[in-house]
């Protein structure tokens, strides 16, 4: 287990620097009030999924995982958004969330009520469910290494301050106050980010070479520089010089710890940044190529397709189709 108290200031700075690249925000939220028995299926999507139980309880079902019981005050993040279900009890029939009637409360926030009028409302289960954009741009290997579900419960002993935020979410869920939708969305964003950070601080289940590298002060110096200046004309001699080692020693150590060669890491990092800048941010392809140090747009396009799997123009068109008017 990774002991954060044992970190040196340099290691903390390196981890913090890379975590600055973490973008996690709620794209849409639903507040649900359901009378048991209920079964809610959430199909696989492009974003992470976040659930908070405000009242009552639910059972989380994920493929190839034992059922996980969630009680009031529990929060869970499903980082890759795999198909899953929330049930009042095992064995209950399941309905797709899209089959429920929803009411829009404000932009990107709706409410779903499926209640039995003859049942006391204190017996209902209330859930805040969100689709989140999870983008660890500078830590791209970590998303694939994350567990299927990440719960807040494992963090409360290490981060007791989270109890106050969870209590605030419970209070907001219990009351229908003006502006509660915005408050709930912002609290959920913070709690989900803390779940990810807690996993990183615990050593990412001891699975990531990137985190191991960040704990090595000399390698961390190189990684932080790459993340700060991805468009710089990086080569092995320049990176080795930053580490204070020969080219061969640097390359061997970097590859052994991180899992890919230094130049491959630089290219992967640049292309994932490019995918966001072109797709989500709507930047011109030529401008992104220049920003990342490519003198030739054709060379940039070849590298992009090799890493991302599609051409830059395809990413741009897909984003424009999904978000009309967002491209610049």
From TrEMBL:
InterPro entries, per database record: AraC_lig (IPR032783), AraC_XylS_family_regulators (IPR050204), Homeodomain-like_sf (IPR009057), HTH_AraC (IPR018060), HTH_AraC-typ_CS (IPR018062), Tscrpt_reg_AraC-type_HTH (IPR020449)
Residue stretches making up the HTH araC/xylS-type domain: 220-318
Top-rank lineage group of the source organism: Bacteria
Gene3D superfamilies: Homeodomain-like
GO MF, one annotated term: sequence-specific DNA binding
Alphabetical UniProt keywords: DNA-binding, Transcription, Transcription regulation
PANTHER family the record matches: ARAC FAMILY TRANSCRIPTIONAL REGULATOR, HTH-TYPE TRANSCRIPTIONAL ACTIVATOR RHAS-RELATED
Protein's recorded name: AraC family transcriptional regulator
